Amino acid sequence: MPTLPLSALEQQDEFLARHIGPSEADQAAMLAAIGAASLDELIAQTVPAAIRLPTPLALPGPRREHEALADLKAIAAQNRVNKSLIGMGYHDTLTPAVILRNVMENPGWYTAYTPYQAEIAQGRLEALLNYQQMVIDLTGLELANASLLDEATAAAEAMTMARRISKSKANAFFIDADCFPQTIAVVQTRAKYFGFELILGPAGQAAEHEVFGALLQYPNVKGEVADLAPTIAALKAKGAVSAVATDLMALVLLKSPGAMGADIALGSSQRFGVPMGFGGPHAAFFATRDEHKRQVAGRIIGVSIDARGKKALRMALQTREQHIRREKANSNICTSQVLLANMAGMYAVYHGPRGLAAIAGRIHRLAAILAAGLETAGIEVTTARYFDTVLVAHPEAARLCDAAEAAGYNLRRVSATALGIAVDEKTTRTDIAALLRLITGQAADSDALDALDAKAMADDCLAGLLRDDAILGHPVFNSHHTEHEMLRYLKKLQNKDLALDHAMISLGSCTMKLNATSEMIPVTWPEFANLHPFAPIAQAAGYRQMIGQLEQWLAAITGFDAVCMQPNSGAQGEYAGLVAIRRYQEAQSEKTGQGPRDVCLIPRSAHGTNPATAQMCGLTVVVVDCDDNGNVDVADLKAKAAQHAERLSCLMLTYPSTHGVFEEAVMDICAAIHAHGGQVYMDGANLNAQVGLTSPGRIGADVSHMNLHKTFAIPHGGGGPGMGPIGLKAHLAPYMANHPVQPIDGPHAGQGSVSAAPWGSASILPISWMYIAMLGGSGLRRATETAILNANYVASRLQDHYPVLYVGSRGRVAHECILDVRAIKANTGIAETDIAKRLMDYGFHAPTVSFPVAGTLMVEPTESESKAELDRFIAAMIAIREEIRKVEQGVWPGDDNPLKHAPHTQADIAAADWSRPYSRQEAVFPLPWVAENKFWPTVNRIDDVYGDRNLFCACVPMEELAGG
Asked: Which of 496, 127, 109, 126 lies closest to 347, judged by CA?
């Protein structure tokens, strides 16, 4: 150490060693194993020279963890956290500390993956079932999904679902003019490319129009609560579908949409314990009638049975991948907001029906006291029947809002003569007294508030609108109200799930990399967590600086000129990218007089979201073939580009390919599209193999989305949240999304929205900021190189046991590899699913199953996994291959072996009888080290067919659980 210079001892790149799994010695051993002299030689063999970056990334150098945290803390301090009483779908809330610490901040919950492998996801599946039951109870409908992205996009999904189920032949959709403006904006964007006509007007006039459906807000943006039953009945009589955007907290007290006859109910569950976070992430809820269950977008959790007849949970109705139907899909949604839905559901579990009634009752009472105090002072309250929000008419509304802001309160600036006030869970009688003093100029002491309280109780404006049915009667909502019980319940569920805190999750295309603690810490800082997305923008100086820096860094990494942060998932990023292309081409057509460009070329290997997104944007999908090596068939692509030249809109291309290969013809492919006037959209799913080595902009893309929950370290959260911002070339930048409530500066002023909040799920952006800041440009490149090394190491070690399906021209894979199981399946009947289930017995989550090629497993180890962990996974896969050989050799029957019975549970080893041809030891401890850290699946293999034939998507009665 004394011989090292100070620059080395300062350890500016300390995080690189924390993030990258293999040590330098391990990397040398791995390179030797795959036959590469150095990491540089491996990259030269993998990434085509023509697309490699000529210079290092133009990014700052790496920062130590504590220094980056201090820098970000100073940025966060620029935010001013007032009490925001703006409402409009966002309300301050109290996250119970037991949920904050043990769910939101717990890697056992936030590092899990989507519950595709249900046997090792029973904990979060139960939490999601609780969430669905909560939504079912509060909305009064029979079926709820496991969450959507936000209220506005849920409303857009309701519109398209209404078109599918409506009996009306009309092409128009009605929107209540008193819906939230951000919701209207997103629905307008979505409707345009579906070709729907939109009609805005008062809710009571909805049935006066010929429409296939209507969206009504309850309570509306003015805070008004109205009985919608007559309007809904009139719509139904005309064959139209009614969708009600509503508020879960209000529904604790108010008559439910289902009771009023609504077909669909939707909204945000944010105020159930999820911080506002400057716009997200939040779980949108979506409920409907049972008869429409097959038309619901997103995921639905259902109850089935396992091989022993025990109740077990799974994703029902093939909602695992609705977009697998490609351009015929209901939606392009391929994720949800699982972590946030779990928080909201647990909020209801912790408080129970009585606790929620107290919270909702307090909110309403404080709003009533405020209204009564204003009216007593002679100030007009224009909202007649309200739950928590009142509009106030006042000639000096702007001055009052300024005064309130100076006193620490943000009110809604409705107009020069009107303001809005939305009471929330954190509002106190002291706040109400302060607001009355600000607005009326009169002090409101304790006696005055008590008198107003008595007046509000005697004259409740909600009379006749309150629900008369019980809610949340299931025992789960009535059993965990002490912190001790809640802590144990959360731990019980966590123990049922395999997350990254237990073992590698080797899913291809999903990049389950380290979500470092230093990246996660800032998310719950109050300066980031407690800002309203529509707070005065001057109060968000820290957010603007952090987001601006992240945009600059992402632009430098991807080679684009502009970045739009609004899309709050990868699917939303795809959609936003194609919308920008469509807007640009429409503008060009207006200038040139040329016809519409509405043909989208998509390789046959593409992820199902691509064609689903294309059809949502009004594009005709033309499929491009792939050659025998899995690459895009360039001749076919050029022929189809030429054939559709006049109408060619774009190519949707994943790079490296969905098959995990750097295709060498990629620049030629992009040039062919540009030659015919088309644009190139690059799917960013595999960006983790590009960063620091090449970039979408250099390759030739015009727009690309970036999965921040993959490449840039935001955790998957058990199936969400995510972020999918897009990078755009300069000519497309004027056409990216903007926002009607909180306009974003730039050339794109006036463009419509694709998500509810201006900067999407802004509160998780500090994760990616920290990731880039701590690694710096050089660290990002090394992370990419190591991801490629790890993938090639796995491929090389396993290729003699499972053929690697596709490789590049020099025998290398990119950051993932596809293992071919088709010959094994043909010879033995052992399928890729059997291998996936057997891996659970070894303590691993399966790779991606049967995508992009049926009968295969796609493995992506990421750069964060150590050689030791890779070797354990490889050993497990080789051991499983040896088990398969016993089936091939007739030692074990094809239908009675460890793979067909996997996964094995404690019930298996505790059973009195054991008549299988393999031992219990072989079943549950197949390799010596498995016992050291054994993960026990809590159910045996789940019967998917039973679950769909006997669909049940609510909490299981306790007596059935006891019996199962």
From this structure: 127
